[in-house]
Design goal:
The protein has 521 residues and is of the alpha/beta class. It has helices at residues 59-70, 105-118, 136-149, 177-205, 213-224, 237-243, 246-252, 305-319, 365-376, 392-398, 410-422, 434-440, 458-467, 511-520, and strands at 2-4, 23-29, 37-42, 81-84, 92-96, 126-129, 169-174, 230-235, 260-266, 275-285, 326-335, 347-349, 355-357, 383-388, 403-407, 427-429, 448-449, 484-488.
Protein backbone atom coordinates (compact mmCIF):
# COMPACT_ATOMS: atom_id res chain seq x y z
CA UNK A 1 0.00 0.00 0.00
CA UNK A 2 1.45 3.33 -1.07
CA UNK A 3 0.27 6.91 -1.23
CA UNK A 4 1.11 8.43 -4.60
CA UNK A 5 0.45 11.66 -6.43
CA UNK A 6 2.81 10.96 -9.30
CA UNK A 7 4.50 7.77 -10.44
CA UNK A 8 7.50 6.60 -8.45
CA UNK A 9 10.59 7.29 -10.55
CA UNK A 10 12.66 4.31 -9.36
CA UNK A 11 10.58 1.50 -10.79
CA UNK A 12 12.96 -1.44 -10.70
CA UNK A 13 16.09 -1.18 -8.55
CA UNK A 14 17.60 -4.49 -9.68
CA UNK A 15 14.45 -6.18 -8.33
CA UNK A 16 15.36 -5.64 -4.67
CA UNK A 17 13.19 -2.63 -3.87
CA UNK A 18 9.64 -3.17 -2.67
CA UNK A 19 7.08 -3.82 -5.39
CA UNK A 20 4.88 -0.77 -5.80
CA UNK A 21 1.68 -2.80 -5.49
CA UNK A 22 -1.73 -1.18 -5.22
CA UNK A 23 -1.15 2.49 -4.32
CA UNK A 24 -3.18 4.69 -2.06
CA UNK A 25 -3.93 7.79 -4.08
CA UNK A 26 -4.10 11.06 -2.19
CA UNK A 27 -5.87 14.12 -3.63
CA UNK A 28 -6.80 17.60 -2.42
CA UNK A 29 -10.38 18.69 -3.04
CA UNK A 30 -12.53 21.72 -2.30
CA UNK A 31 -15.67 19.58 -2.69
CA UNK A 32 -17.99 19.23 0.28
CA UNK A 33 -18.95 15.67 -0.62
CA UNK A 34 -17.99 12.78 1.64
CA UNK A 35 -16.89 9.80 -0.42
CA UNK A 36 -16.49 6.51 1.39
CA UNK A 37 -15.29 6.48 4.97
CA UNK A 38 -15.10 9.83 6.74
CA UNK A 39 -11.84 10.58 8.58
CA UNK A 40 -12.50 13.18 11.26
CA UNK A 41 -9.60 14.65 13.29
CA UNK A 42 -10.84 15.95 16.65
CA UNK A 43 -9.46 17.83 19.62
CA UNK A 44 -9.57 16.37 23.10
CA UNK A 45 -12.77 17.37 24.86
CA UNK A 46 -14.89 17.56 21.69
CA UNK A 47 -18.50 16.75 22.58
CA UNK A 48 -19.99 16.98 19.10
CA UNK A 49 -19.06 17.22 15.45
CA UNK A 50 -17.53 20.66 14.80
CA UNK A 51 -19.96 22.91 12.96
CA UNK A 52 -17.49 23.48 10.11
CA UNK A 53 -17.40 19.72 9.45
CA UNK A 54 -21.16 19.16 9.30
CA UNK A 55 -21.69 20.21 5.68
CA UNK A 56 -22.70 17.22 3.56
CA UNK A 57 -22.53 14.83 6.51
CA UNK A 58 -25.46 12.40 6.70
CA UNK A 59 -27.68 13.07 9.68
CA UNK A 60 -27.49 9.54 11.05
CA UNK A 61 -23.67 9.52 10.88
CA UNK A 62 -23.48 12.88 12.61
CA UNK A 63 -25.84 11.66 15.33
CA UNK A 64 -23.80 8.51 15.86
CA UNK A 65 -20.57 10.51 16.24
CA UNK A 66 -22.25 13.02 18.57
CA UNK A 67 -23.51 10.23 20.83
CA UNK A 68 -20.04 8.75 21.12
CA UNK A 69 -18.39 12.10 21.82
CA UNK A 70 -20.99 13.30 24.34
CA UNK A 71 -20.73 10.02 26.22
CA UNK A 72 -16.97 10.36 26.39
CA UNK A 73 -16.41 7.05 24.60
CA UNK A 74 -13.80 8.69 22.37
CA UNK A 75 -11.62 11.16 24.24
CA UNK A 76 -9.51 12.23 21.22
CA UNK A 77 -6.18 11.68 22.97
CA UNK A 78 -3.15 12.19 20.74
CA UNK A 79 -2.75 9.48 18.08
CA UNK A 80 -5.89 7.62 19.22
CA UNK A 81 -8.39 6.35 16.67
CA UNK A 82 -11.86 4.83 16.68
CA UNK A 83 -13.65 3.21 13.77
CA UNK A 84 -17.43 3.45 13.39
CA UNK A 85 -18.97 0.72 11.22
CA UNK A 86 -22.47 -0.52 10.56
CA UNK A 87 -24.23 2.84 10.47
CA UNK A 88 -27.02 3.61 8.03
CA UNK A 89 -25.18 6.38 6.24
CA UNK A 90 -21.57 5.40 6.12
CA UNK A 91 -18.43 4.72 8.13
CA UNK A 92 -16.07 6.98 10.02
CA UNK A 93 -12.63 7.00 11.58
CA UNK A 94 -12.27 9.38 14.50
CA UNK A 95 -8.70 10.43 15.16
CA UNK A 96 -7.40 12.29 18.21
CA UNK A 97 -5.26 15.42 18.11
CA UNK A 98 -4.98 15.98 21.86
CA UNK A 99 -5.68 19.31 23.54
CA UNK A 100 -6.25 22.20 21.16
CA UNK A 101 -4.10 24.68 23.09
CA UNK A 102 -0.90 22.65 22.68
CA UNK A 103 -1.59 20.88 19.39
CA UNK A 104 1.13 21.42 16.79
CA UNK A 105 1.72 20.37 13.21
CA UNK A 106 3.74 17.48 14.62
CA UNK A 107 0.58 16.19 16.31
CA UNK A 108 -1.32 16.44 13.04
CA UNK A 109 1.45 14.48 11.32
CA UNK A 110 1.30 11.75 13.96
CA UNK A 111 -2.49 11.66 13.69
CA UNK A 112 -2.23 11.13 9.94
CA UNK A 113 0.24 8.30 10.50
CA UNK A 114 -2.12 6.73 13.04
CA UNK A 115 -4.92 6.68 10.48
CA UNK A 116 -2.77 4.97 7.85
CA UNK A 117 -1.52 2.44 10.41
CA UNK A 118 -5.11 1.49 11.28
CA UNK A 119 -6.63 1.23 7.80
CA UNK A 120 -8.26 -2.15 7.15
CA UNK A 121 -10.25 -3.71 4.35
CA UNK A 122 -13.45 -2.91 6.25
CA UNK A 123 -12.80 0.81 5.73
CA UNK A 124 -13.34 0.41 2.01
CA UNK A 125 -11.33 1.92 -0.83
CA UNK A 126 -12.34 5.56 -0.40
CA UNK A 127 -11.54 7.91 2.49
CA UNK A 128 -12.48 11.56 2.93
CA UNK A 129 -10.55 13.63 5.49
CA UNK A 130 -12.37 16.65 6.87
CA UNK A 131 -10.75 19.22 9.18
CA UNK A 132 -12.12 21.85 11.52
CA UNK A 133 -10.39 25.05 10.36
CA UNK A 134 -6.97 23.43 10.80
CA UNK A 135 -5.04 25.64 8.38
CA UNK A 136 -2.93 24.60 5.42
CA UNK A 137 0.22 23.80 7.41
CA UNK A 138 -1.58 21.38 9.73
CA UNK A 139 -3.56 19.75 6.94
CA UNK A 140 -0.35 19.28 4.98
CA UNK A 141 1.35 17.73 8.00
CA UNK A 142 -1.56 15.30 8.39
CA UNK A 143 -1.17 14.25 4.76
CA UNK A 144 2.59 13.90 5.24
CA UNK A 145 2.02 11.60 8.20
CA UNK A 146 -0.29 9.42 6.11
CA UNK A 147 2.34 9.18 3.37
CA UNK A 148 5.27 8.52 5.68
CA UNK A 149 3.42 5.70 7.45
CA UNK A 150 2.24 4.15 4.18
CA UNK A 151 5.19 1.79 3.91
CA UNK A 152 5.95 -1.88 4.22
CA UNK A 153 8.91 -3.95 3.10
CA UNK A 154 7.51 -7.30 2.02
CA UNK A 155 9.52 -8.05 -1.11
CA UNK A 156 10.59 -11.40 0.28
CA UNK A 157 7.20 -12.53 1.59
CA UNK A 158 4.99 -14.92 -0.35
CA UNK A 159 1.76 -13.20 -1.37
CA UNK A 160 -1.61 -14.81 -0.75
CA UNK A 161 -4.01 -14.97 -3.67
CA UNK A 162 -6.35 -12.38 -2.15
CA UNK A 163 -3.44 -9.96 -1.69
CA UNK A 164 -2.93 -9.89 -5.44
CA UNK A 165 -6.42 -8.46 -5.84
CA UNK A 166 -5.91 -5.38 -3.69
CA UNK A 167 -7.94 -2.41 -4.83
CA UNK A 168 -6.57 1.09 -4.93
CA UNK A 169 -7.42 3.19 -1.90
CA UNK A 170 -8.26 6.81 -2.65
CA UNK A 171 -7.90 9.52 -0.01
CA UNK A 172 -9.47 12.96 -0.45
CA UNK A 173 -8.34 15.78 1.81
CA UNK A 174 -11.00 18.43 1.76
CA UNK A 175 -10.39 22.14 2.26
CA UNK A 176 -11.77 25.52 1.19
CA UNK A 177 -11.27 26.80 -2.35
CA UNK A 178 -8.90 29.44 -0.98
CA UNK A 179 -6.70 26.75 0.59
CA UNK A 180 -6.73 24.24 -2.26
CA UNK A 181 -3.85 25.59 -4.36
CA UNK A 182 -1.38 25.97 -1.49
CA UNK A 183 -2.37 22.68 0.11
CA UNK A 184 -1.95 20.87 -3.21
CA UNK A 185 1.53 22.38 -3.60
CA UNK A 186 2.44 21.31 -0.09
CA UNK A 187 1.14 17.77 -0.50
CA UNK A 188 3.05 17.33 -3.77
CA UNK A 189 6.24 18.52 -2.05
CA UNK A 190 5.72 16.18 0.89
CA UNK A 191 5.02 13.34 -1.51
CA UNK A 192 8.42 13.87 -3.15
CA UNK A 193 10.17 14.02 0.21
CA UNK A 194 8.42 10.85 1.37
CA UNK A 195 9.72 9.04 -1.69
CA UNK A 196 13.21 9.89 -0.48
CA UNK A 197 12.41 8.62 3.01
CA UNK A 198 10.95 5.41 1.62
CA UNK A 199 14.00 4.87 -0.60
CA UNK A 200 16.24 5.25 2.44
CA UNK A 201 14.14 2.65 4.26
CA UNK A 202 14.23 0.30 1.28
CA UNK A 203 18.02 0.45 1.15
CA UNK A 204 18.36 -0.20 4.87
CA UNK A 205 15.80 -2.99 5.01
CA UNK A 206 17.20 -4.91 2.04
CA UNK A 207 19.00 -8.10 3.19
CA UNK A 208 22.79 -7.98 2.89
CA UNK A 209 23.00 -10.86 0.42
CA UNK A 210 21.21 -8.58 -2.04
CA UNK A 211 22.55 -5.21 -0.84
CA UNK A 212 26.30 -4.81 -1.09
CA UNK A 213 28.63 -2.09 -2.39
CA UNK A 214 28.44 -2.93 -6.09
CA UNK A 215 24.64 -3.19 -6.02
CA UNK A 216 24.35 0.17 -4.24
CA UNK A 217 26.62 1.72 -6.87
CA UNK A 218 24.63 0.22 -9.75
CA UNK A 219 21.41 1.47 -8.19
CA UNK A 220 22.83 4.98 -7.91
CA UNK A 221 23.95 4.92 -11.55
CA UNK A 222 20.54 3.69 -12.74
CA UNK A 223 18.74 6.21 -10.53
CA UNK A 224 20.71 9.11 -12.01
CA UNK A 225 19.53 8.15 -15.51
CA UNK A 226 16.05 9.27 -14.48
CA UNK A 227 17.14 12.90 -13.99
CA UNK A 228 18.80 15.33 -16.37
CA UNK A 229 20.42 17.29 -13.55
CA UNK A 230 22.12 14.45 -11.65
CA UNK A 231 25.45 12.76 -12.32
CA UNK A 232 26.90 9.75 -10.51
CA UNK A 233 30.57 8.79 -10.47
CA UNK A 234 31.71 5.43 -9.11
CA UNK A 235 35.25 4.93 -7.80
CA UNK A 236 35.74 1.17 -7.85
CA UNK A 237 38.12 -0.92 -5.77
CA UNK A 238 41.11 -0.67 -8.09
CA UNK A 239 40.64 3.07 -8.51
CA UNK A 240 40.29 3.55 -4.75
CA UNK A 241 43.45 1.54 -4.20
CA UNK A 242 45.35 3.62 -6.76
CA UNK A 243 44.03 6.87 -5.24
CA UNK A 244 45.27 5.90 -1.78
CA UNK A 245 41.91 5.47 -0.06
CA UNK A 246 43.46 3.40 2.69
CA UNK A 247 40.52 3.69 5.08
CA UNK A 248 37.97 2.40 2.59
CA UNK A 249 40.29 -0.36 1.39
CA UNK A 250 41.22 -1.46 4.92
CA UNK A 251 37.58 -2.06 5.84
CA UNK A 252 36.42 -3.72 2.65
CA UNK A 253 39.37 -5.76 1.43
CA UNK A 254 38.46 -8.82 3.51
CA UNK A 255 35.18 -9.24 1.65
CA UNK A 256 34.68 -10.86 -1.75
CA UNK A 257 32.35 -7.91 -2.38
CA UNK A 258 34.85 -5.14 -2.78
CA UNK A 259 34.39 -1.56 -1.54
CA UNK A 260 33.70 1.48 -3.67
CA UNK A 261 32.91 5.17 -3.36
CA UNK A 262 29.83 6.66 -5.03
CA UNK A 263 29.69 10.40 -5.75
CA UNK A 264 26.38 12.12 -6.54
CA UNK A 265 26.38 15.58 -8.14
CA UNK A 266 23.14 17.53 -8.58
CA UNK A 267 23.07 20.68 -10.72
CA UNK A 268 26.86 20.59 -10.84
CA UNK A 269 27.09 23.50 -13.27
CA UNK A 270 25.55 25.94 -10.79
CA UNK A 271 28.29 28.28 -9.60
CA UNK A 272 29.31 28.74 -5.99
CA UNK A 273 29.77 26.55 -2.95
CA UNK A 274 27.16 23.97 -2.03
CA UNK A 275 26.17 21.50 0.69
CA UNK A 276 28.07 18.23 0.68
CA UNK A 277 26.74 15.08 2.35
CA UNK A 278 28.90 12.07 3.27
CA UNK A 279 27.47 8.69 4.23
CA UNK A 280 28.90 5.64 5.97
CA UNK A 281 27.83 2.64 3.92
CA UNK A 282 28.81 -0.61 5.62
CA UNK A 283 26.38 -2.98 3.92
CA UNK A 284 27.09 -5.63 6.53
CA UNK A 285 29.32 -5.34 9.57
CA UNK A 286 30.61 -8.50 11.20
CA UNK A 287 33.19 -6.45 13.10
CA UNK A 288 35.94 -7.98 10.96
CA UNK A 289 38.72 -9.73 12.88
CA UNK A 290 37.33 -8.02 16.02
CA UNK A 291 34.24 -10.15 15.51
CA UNK A 292 30.94 -9.03 16.99
CA UNK A 293 28.86 -11.31 19.23
CA UNK A 294 26.34 -13.40 17.33
CA UNK A 295 23.27 -12.02 19.08
CA UNK A 296 21.44 -9.47 16.89
CA UNK A 297 24.23 -9.47 14.31
CA UNK A 298 21.50 -9.61 11.64
CA UNK A 299 20.79 -5.95 12.44
CA UNK A 300 24.19 -5.01 11.05
CA UNK A 301 22.59 -4.79 7.61
CA UNK A 302 21.46 -1.37 8.87
CA UNK A 303 25.07 -0.23 9.17
CA UNK A 304 24.79 1.41 5.77
CA UNK A 305 22.12 3.76 7.15
CA UNK A 306 24.32 6.81 6.63
CA UNK A 307 24.62 6.16 2.89
CA UNK A 308 20.92 5.29 2.72
CA UNK A 309 20.17 8.68 4.30
CA UNK A 310 22.35 10.43 1.74
CA UNK A 311 20.80 8.59 -1.23
CA UNK A 312 17.29 9.20 0.12
CA UNK A 313 18.02 12.90 0.57
CA UNK A 314 19.23 13.19 -3.01
CA UNK A 315 16.03 11.49 -4.17
CA UNK A 316 13.92 13.88 -2.09
CA UNK A 317 15.74 16.88 -3.54
CA UNK A 318 15.39 15.55 -7.08
CA UNK A 319 11.70 14.75 -6.63
CA UNK A 320 10.95 18.25 -5.36
CA UNK A 321 12.84 19.95 -8.18
CA UNK A 322 15.68 21.45 -6.17
CA UNK A 323 17.64 23.81 -8.43
CA UNK A 324 20.70 24.35 -6.24
CA UNK A 325 23.95 22.45 -6.40
CA UNK A 326 24.39 19.54 -3.97
CA UNK A 327 27.14 16.91 -3.81
CA UNK A 328 27.03 13.64 -1.89
CA UNK A 329 29.64 10.96 -1.25
CA UNK A 330 28.84 7.46 -0.04
CA UNK A 331 31.60 5.19 1.26
CA UNK A 332 30.53 1.60 0.60
CA UNK A 333 32.14 -1.51 2.08
CA UNK A 334 31.35 -4.86 3.67
CA UNK A 335 33.37 -5.58 6.82
CA UNK A 336 34.25 -9.29 6.86
CA UNK A 337 36.94 -11.43 8.54
CA UNK A 338 39.32 -13.12 6.13
CA UNK A 339 42.96 -14.10 5.70
CA UNK A 340 43.62 -10.77 4.02
CA UNK A 341 41.42 -8.67 6.33
CA UNK A 342 42.81 -5.77 8.33
CA UNK A 343 44.06 -6.83 11.77
CA UNK A 344 44.02 -5.02 15.13
CA UNK A 345 47.48 -3.48 15.37
CA UNK A 346 47.78 -2.64 11.68
CA UNK A 347 48.69 0.91 10.67
CA UNK A 348 47.08 2.24 7.51
CA UNK A 349 47.46 5.44 5.52
CA UNK A 350 44.30 7.13 4.28
CA UNK A 351 43.57 9.52 1.43
CA UNK A 352 44.62 12.42 3.67
CA UNK A 353 48.12 11.01 4.02
CA UNK A 354 47.63 10.66 7.77
CA UNK A 355 48.31 7.29 9.34
CA UNK A 356 45.80 5.47 11.53
CA UNK A 357 46.56 2.82 14.12
CA UNK A 358 43.77 0.25 13.89
CA UNK A 359 43.12 -0.90 17.44
CA UNK A 360 39.76 -2.51 16.72
CA UNK A 361 38.44 -3.52 13.30
CA UNK A 362 34.88 -3.05 14.55
CA UNK A 363 35.55 0.69 14.68
CA UNK A 364 35.41 0.62 10.89
CA UNK A 365 32.86 3.27 9.97
CA UNK A 366 35.21 6.08 10.93
CA UNK A 367 37.86 4.61 8.63
CA UNK A 368 35.71 4.75 5.49
CA UNK A 369 34.43 8.18 6.49
CA UNK A 370 37.99 9.48 6.88
CA UNK A 371 38.46 9.04 3.13
CA UNK A 372 35.01 10.38 2.29
CA UNK A 373 35.52 13.52 4.36
CA UNK A 374 38.93 14.18 2.85
CA UNK A 375 37.58 13.61 -0.66
CA UNK A 376 34.86 16.19 0.06
CA UNK A 377 37.47 18.94 0.18
CA UNK A 378 37.97 18.63 -3.60
CA UNK A 379 34.52 20.17 -4.13
CA UNK A 380 35.17 23.22 -1.92
CA UNK A 381 31.73 22.86 -0.30
CA UNK A 382 29.83 25.38 1.76
CA UNK A 383 29.66 22.77 4.50
CA UNK A 384 30.00 19.01 5.03
CA UNK A 385 27.58 16.82 6.99
CA UNK A 386 28.39 13.16 7.55
CA UNK A 387 25.82 10.54 8.58
CA UNK A 388 26.74 7.28 10.23
CA UNK A 389 25.36 4.51 12.39
CA UNK A 390 28.67 4.98 14.13
CA UNK A 391 28.66 4.06 17.82
CA UNK A 392 26.75 2.03 20.35
CA UNK A 393 27.95 4.67 22.82
CA UNK A 394 25.62 7.17 21.18
CA UNK A 395 22.68 4.82 21.75
CA UNK A 396 23.72 4.46 25.41
CA UNK A 397 23.81 8.25 25.74
CA UNK A 398 20.66 9.21 23.83
CA UNK A 399 18.68 5.99 23.42
CA UNK A 400 16.56 5.74 20.31
CA UNK A 401 15.04 9.17 20.82
CA UNK A 402 17.69 11.48 19.38
CA UNK A 403 20.58 11.56 16.93
CA UNK A 404 23.94 12.71 18.26
CA UNK A 405 25.11 15.96 16.64
CA UNK A 406 28.66 17.33 16.68
CA UNK A 407 30.13 20.25 14.73
CA UNK A 408 33.20 22.44 14.48
CA UNK A 409 30.83 25.44 14.18
CA UNK A 410 28.30 26.14 16.94
CA UNK A 411 26.04 28.24 14.71
CA UNK A 412 25.92 25.54 12.07
CA UNK A 413 25.16 22.91 14.70
CA UNK A 414 22.25 25.07 15.84
CA UNK A 415 20.94 25.32 12.26
CA UNK A 416 20.84 21.53 11.95
CA UNK A 417 19.24 21.17 15.36
CA UNK A 418 16.53 23.64 14.41
CA UNK A 419 15.95 21.96 11.04
CA UNK A 420 15.43 18.69 12.90
CA UNK A 421 13.00 20.33 15.30
CA UNK A 422 11.05 21.77 12.37
CA UNK A 423 10.27 18.29 11.06
CA UNK A 424 10.19 16.50 14.44
CA UNK A 425 13.48 14.62 14.00
CA UNK A 426 15.55 15.39 17.08
CA UNK A 427 19.30 15.93 16.67
CA UNK A 428 20.90 16.56 20.06
CA UNK A 429 24.02 18.78 20.35
CA UNK A 430 27.02 16.91 21.74
CA UNK A 431 30.47 18.15 22.89
CA UNK A 432 33.55 18.17 20.70
CA UNK A 433 36.16 18.88 23.34
CA UNK A 434 39.93 19.30 22.82
CA UNK A 435 40.51 16.46 25.26
CA UNK A 436 38.69 14.06 22.93
CA UNK A 437 40.82 15.16 19.98
CA UNK A 438 43.98 14.74 22.02
CA UNK A 439 42.89 11.22 22.97
CA UNK A 440 42.40 10.22 19.32
CA UNK A 441 45.75 11.64 18.20
CA UNK A 442 47.70 10.02 21.02
CA UNK A 443 48.89 6.90 19.21
CA UNK A 444 52.48 5.94 19.96
CA UNK A 445 53.14 4.79 16.40
CA UNK A 446 50.72 6.68 14.11
CA UNK A 447 49.13 10.08 13.56
CA UNK A 448 45.76 8.91 14.87
CA UNK A 449 44.11 5.91 16.49
CA UNK A 450 40.69 4.52 15.61
CA UNK A 451 39.67 3.82 19.20
CA UNK A 452 39.69 5.85 22.36
CA UNK A 453 41.85 5.04 25.37
CA UNK A 454 38.91 3.82 27.47
CA UNK A 455 35.24 2.97 27.35
CA UNK A 456 33.96 6.40 28.33
CA UNK A 457 32.70 9.05 25.92
CA UNK A 458 32.98 6.71 22.94
CA UNK A 459 30.59 8.68 20.72
CA UNK A 460 32.53 11.87 21.45
CA UNK A 461 35.93 10.36 20.72
CA UNK A 462 34.58 8.93 17.45
CA UNK A 463 33.46 12.42 16.40
CA UNK A 464 36.84 13.80 17.45
CA UNK A 465 38.54 11.22 15.23
CA UNK A 466 36.45 12.27 12.22
CA UNK A 467 37.33 15.91 12.77
CA UNK A 468 40.98 15.07 12.04
CA UNK A 469 39.99 14.29 8.45
CA UNK A 470 37.86 17.36 7.73
CA UNK A 471 40.11 19.30 5.33
CA UNK A 472 41.00 22.95 5.39
CA UNK A 473 39.85 24.98 2.39
CA UNK A 474 42.06 24.25 -0.57
CA UNK A 475 43.86 21.67 1.59
CA UNK A 476 46.04 24.50 2.86
CA UNK A 477 48.01 23.62 5.98
CA UNK A 478 47.14 26.85 7.77
CA UNK A 479 43.78 27.38 6.07
CA UNK A 480 40.33 27.54 7.59
CA UNK A 481 38.75 24.16 8.28
CA UNK A 482 35.59 23.60 6.24
CA UNK A 483 32.39 23.88 8.26
CA UNK A 484 31.42 20.34 9.25
CA UNK A 485 28.89 18.40 11.27
CA UNK A 486 28.67 14.75 12.23
CA UNK A 487 25.35 12.99 12.86
CA UNK A 488 25.48 9.64 14.66
CA UNK A 489 22.22 7.88 13.73
CA UNK A 490 23.01 4.54 15.40
CA UNK A 491 20.02 4.90 17.71
CA UNK A 492 17.57 6.52 15.32
CA UNK A 493 18.01 4.81 11.95
CA UNK A 494 16.47 1.58 13.23
CA UNK A 495 14.97 0.21 16.43
CA UNK A 496 13.14 3.42 17.32
CA UNK A 497 9.84 2.09 18.66
CA UNK A 498 8.55 5.57 19.50
CA UNK A 499 8.84 6.75 15.87
CA UNK A 500 5.19 6.69 14.82
CA UNK A 501 6.06 7.30 11.16
CA UNK A 502 7.30 3.72 10.72
CA UNK A 503 6.11 0.32 11.90
CA UNK A 504 9.49 -1.38 12.11
CA UNK A 505 12.87 -1.67 10.42
CA UNK A 506 14.75 1.25 8.92
CA UNK A 507 13.29 4.69 9.68
CA UNK A 508 14.78 6.85 6.92
CA UNK A 509 15.54 9.43 9.60
CA UNK A 510 16.97 12.85 8.65
CA UNK A 511 16.10 12.79 4.96
CA UNK A 512 13.42 15.30 5.93
CA UNK A 513 15.78 17.21 8.24
CA UNK A 514 18.41 17.76 5.58
CA UNK A 515 15.88 18.52 2.86
CA UNK A 516 14.53 21.23 5.16
CA UNK A 517 18.04 22.49 5.95
CA UNK A 518 19.02 22.73 2.30
CA UNK A 519 15.78 24.14 0.90
CA UNK A 520 14.38 26.28 3.72
CA UNK A 521 17.10 27.11 6.25
Amino acid sequence: MRIVIQKYTIVEMLSIIRPIGAPMELNVSASENINGTLVLPLYEGSESVPESCEVGMPTSLKSQINRILSAGDFKAKKKSTMTLLGGEDGKAILVGLGKSDDCTSHDYRKAGAAVTAGIKKSHGNELTVRFDNAGVANMGAFAEGMMLRDYSYDKYKKKDDDEDDKTEVSVRITCSEEEAKELTRLVIEYNGICKGVHLSRDLGNCPPNDMYPEVFADMARDWAKGYDNVDVTIINYDEALKAGMGGLIAVGKGSARKPCMVIFEMNKNVEGRCPLLVGKGITFDTGGISLKPGANMDEMKYDMGGSATVFGTMEALAQTGHEGKVVAITCMAENMPAANATRPGDVIKGLSGKTIEVLNTDAEGRLVLSDGLWKAGEFDPEYIIDFATLTGACVVALGHEATGLWSNDDDFRTRIHEAGNAVDELAWPMPLLPAFEKEMTNSKIADTRNLGAGRYGGANTAAAFLKQFVPNRGYKKDGEQITWAHMDIAGTYWGSKTNTMVKDGATGVHVRTIHHLITKS
